[in-house]
Amino acid sequence: MSHSEITFGGILQPLVESLEKNPRQSGRLSGQEVVIPRKGIKAIIAVDGENDIHLLITPAPDNDKNLSKLDLRGLKVANRDWAVSGNKAQEYLDISCSTGILPSFKRPFLRFAEDVLFEISTSEQFPAEAVYRTGIRWRKFWSPDIETEISREWVHGLFGELLFLADIIERFGPEVVNSWTGPTGKDHDFQTGNNLAVEIKTSVETPFRINCNIRQLDHTIFKTLYIVCYHLASSEKGTALSDLVRNIEKLIGTDESSLDKFYERLMAAGYTRQLESAYNSFRLNFSDASAFLIDNNFPKITESSFVSPPDHRITGIRYSLQLTGLPDLRIDEIENNLRQFTKHDSK
What we know:
Elements: H1 12-19, E1 29-34, E2 42-48, E3 53-58, E4 75-82, E5 90-97, H2 106-121, H3 127-142, H4 152-172, E6 190-192, E7 196-203, E8 209-213, E9 224-239, H5 241-252, H6 256-268, H7 276-279, E10 284-286, E11 290-293, E12 318-322, H8 335-338
Parallel strand pairs: 7-9
Antiparallel strand pairs: 1-2, 2-3, 3-5, 4-5, 6-7, 8-12, 9-10, 9-11
């Protein structure tokens, strides 16, 4: 079966409605297996005694740190043991939604679950990775506060990423949008396999002052790692996020696949059309890009900077770095390296 023939759209609601008619007890599930065209992977849609809906997937991951990053309203992701649908008790990756107390979440959750099933069926990634990637795409809906406040830090961060994206599309063509990985939860904003990564930073200070986490400047992960920086300054006659989006749409043109990928990443980054008038209040002037090669001599803090790596339960370690006395490069000077983004491998 080809990817174009695989579809789960609309199949889960009638299954759940049928399951809801069955008598249920607290702490037990009534479930129905959903066939997935991948060997060794099983999926079950189920309802518990509190009318919460569960999507169960096996095999369950041993330890997936990415899933702990999904802080999503009404949604829980955890490994749990269940005996369901005539199967003996075993451990599942359990994605559940509090539809018993949030009934309005039922239809969106089922659509989310169908997206998870499609992602698993059309890729070779582990089920946990499919759940994480789908969660990133849906995080605006499932966020703890749907009406997220627009922060200057978020605007500046996305502004820089869109400036760089427009630049490489002009140089190499629209398919390089596949290299924009920041919105998918990667530590680096642009990357292709383990060959090349680029982290985008913006600064309102001169010289550049940037904030980093302990993974962003770890150059041992990639053959080549750059930071690309832009100076930003507020200006009533400056450029808005929506202006950058329109420019990139024009650059992509009629390449529908790349345009769909751009919209997907834009949504995952938290950008919505409904808030464009609010974004327009953050107009900015910007400098040309300055690139810095991250090597052994570049000042940084990474996990290897510690005698013992930090406990995985410690998260959000960040530090501020002033880029003084460091050689910078123009984008033209690293263009040949950036051409690797045309290889479309963003894993």
